[in-house]
Amino acid sequence: AKASQPYRTSYHFQPPKNWMNDPNGPMYYKGVYHLFYQHNPYAAVAGNISWAHSISYNLIDWMHLDNAINPTKPYDINGCWSGSATILPGVKKPIILYTGDNFKNQQVQNLAVPKNMSDPLLREWVKSGRNPVMTPGNGIDPMMYRDPTTAWRGSDKIWRVIIGGQINGHGTAILYKSKDFVNWIRSKNPLHSSNKTGMWECPDFYPVSSRGKKGLDSSFKGRDTKHVLKASFGDHDYYVIGNYESKMDRYSADVDFMDSIVQLRYDYGMFYASKSFYDSHKKRRILWGWVTEADSKSDDINKGWSGIQSIPRTILLDKTGKQLVQWPIKELEKLRARQVSLHNIEIKGGTVFEISGITASQADVEVLFELPRFKDQIELMDTKSVDPQQLCSQKNASVRGVLGPFGLLVLASNDLTEQTAIFFRIFKGYDKFVVLMCSDQSRSSLKRDVDKKIFGAFVDVDPSQKISLRTLIDRSTVESFGGKGKACITARVYPELAIDNKSHLYAFNYGTRSVRISRLRAWSMKKAQIVEFHEGRKPL
Ligand code: DQQ
Fold first, then answer.
1. Is ligand 1 within 6 A of the CB of residue 81?
2. Mind listing the pLDDT tens digit for each residue in 382-404?
3. CA 296 from chain center: how many Å?
4. Residues 284, 243 share a domain
5. What's the whole-model pTM score?
6. Position 8 in a domain
7. CA atoms within 13 A on the CB side of 289
């Protein structure tokens, strides 16, 4: 691996080296957070997939342990693929369900449990003698049958789990039930399916509260809850919100997958194969997602690593009930160091100014924008039929409008040759004003062979109120939250000039009208402690 590592992140989770993809089996168990992940122990490219394992006490500082599950058996010899952990009540023991790619390259589902319950870190895991516990058959394509969710238990005490699949060409959440977690019976009907999508990878299914700010355990039953179903396909994590009726195991989505132009995604940038878990300690639901690289395979081999995890996010149902809101976990704030603040500053149309005094390559920035009064002078847009990503690509950061683009230029070189722009634009839609959020990577690096695709999303906020933006900058990662977490966009960038202390942060407004920053706070971020375990190392 390269000695100089300008792109290695400082506070996003990464293995010491080599390939990482999906987060697996996240859980909180007896004071310890566990994260497993898809890992190639031998190279910075996909292959030899095993379950690597790390632990933490705060979800920010991590200790890497030995792999928890390796491909060793006929039923998983071609890879130990994604899966989830469930904490069995009563005995209070965690159990993992994962997909094995077997000796015939068929996908089957397997169990693993901790070898030694008195080890607080649960370092060793053993596979069940009953594996595989679920196998394809009866209309299931053995190549499209994977990624079991955390199980949930109905009032009938029966466990349920869904497996991602494709049946008759349709994305499907295949449902299984079990009394003892070992003998699983496939239900006649899937929990849900869609004829508008293909294969569903890494499904997730969980309740969210329509009142209050607490997360819910996967088995929670009670009033004022909705259920979220997430599926990963076409490079994105899409979700629907709906009602789950556990007696009949019927799920109905309020607005189904791909049914409207509003296709809800956790993140409108790079974020895939995510998984959530219920943190019983802090009563919240936390989401992890895999953020892949946007550079080339040979760059990855050269760097010696590929893939990071998003900052864990708390997920709640928005008060409209129509979407989720996500926010970086509170614990991240402990890494905030030097702070700069600005109040009530006007940014005239066509201007840029530098926000100095912090390490711009490693920062947490929160801004509140306030717009002047406006009515009809702004651009009309048929926002009901336009794809926000396309809109951001056509109207990138250099295209001037009336209200917008305004926002931040991050990981920018001092002459702005390199810059990643996260910004808003306001349009007049049919019946209301619409806020577009973009993350423009097109000028992020002088390097070729890097995917510089632009990302975009509509943010369901009223632009006559203040518009908030939080951006986490971490060397090659730009993770942005618009409208207090109503729209998230994660991007990977590889500047050549704007690295380390040559990296700058700016605020800009290329609209013709001026806008105000009613408040801006930016912090230098410390490095998280992400270390390798060895006997005798003192706990974090
Ligand atoms: N990654 C795993 C599969 C899953 C895919 C293999 C999603 O289980 O479907 O590494 O990224």
1. yes
2. 888 899 999 999 999 999 999 99
3. 21
4. yes
5. 0.98
6. no
7. 32
